[in-house]
Amino acid sequence: VTPFGVGSSIAGFVWSDVNANGIYEPDPPAAGALPDGPLAGVTVSLYQGSDPDPVATTVSDADGNYEFLDP
């Protein structure tokens, strides 16, 4: 495994995109529209190049956040 940089990280947020527009909208502008929300417990995999095997996996927390750390 090639490190992606000493002390660096890759992080993100997993959410339910209710209207499938790719934009996180916890307070949607349309009246009566359902809000997007964070997804906890989602397994997120990190891949390098075209290798089909992940180099790391993690699980999103209660707020939908995840992070891969390179010590």
Short description:
The chain has 71 residues and is mainly beta. The chain is built from no helices and six strands.
Salient structural properties:
mainly beta; two-stranded antiparallel sheet; about 70 residues; two-stranded antiparallel ribbon
Major β-sheet, in short?
2 strands, antiparallel
Topology order in helix (H) and strand (E) letters: EEEEEE
Mean pLDDT: 88
Q: State the shape.
A: elongated
β-strand number? 6
The level of helicity is: under 10%
For the largest sheet, list the strands in their spatial order: 1-6
The end-to-end span amounts to: 13 Å
Radius of gyration: 15 Å
Spans of 5+ residues with little confidence (pLDDT < 50)? Answer: none
Give me the number of helical elements.
0
Judged by helices, strands and strand pairing, the structural class is: mainly beta
SS strand fraction? 25-35%
